[in-house]
């Protein structure tokens, strides 16, 4: 018999998320002192699919993605630069996908919040 709660809708307005406060690792930090909060509202049973809300104060750090991530910016502004030098700036209302294998820099230009959906390939 399966646990019925594992098949119910997860409503971000009423669910109690798993909350994690962090800062980028010092060896990846390029500027600022960004403080981040991730509120993970959903993780599937495989531990490879996640959804939640992430927030950060301004700062700049190197990233390397092993996961695929869909982002929807709800507040603020960010600049993301690929290691090749190509860059994108996103503000509230923008949505985009960062594919696994992306390597570059995240820069939070003003306090930012995003909805995220992450899939970590096997």
UniProtKB/TrEMBL annotation:
It holds the Pfam family Cupin_3. Coiled coil: none annotated. This is Cupin domain-containing protein. Transmembrane segments: none annotated. InterPro entries: RmlC-like_jellyroll, RmlC_Cupin_sf, UGlyAH_Cupin_dom. PANTHER family: (S)-UREIDOGLYCINE AMINOHYDROLASE CUPIN DOMAIN-CONTAINING PROTEIN, CYTOPLASMIC PROTEIN-RELATED. It comes from Steroidobacter gossypii. Residues 46-116 form the (S)-ureidoglycine aminohydrolase cupin domain.
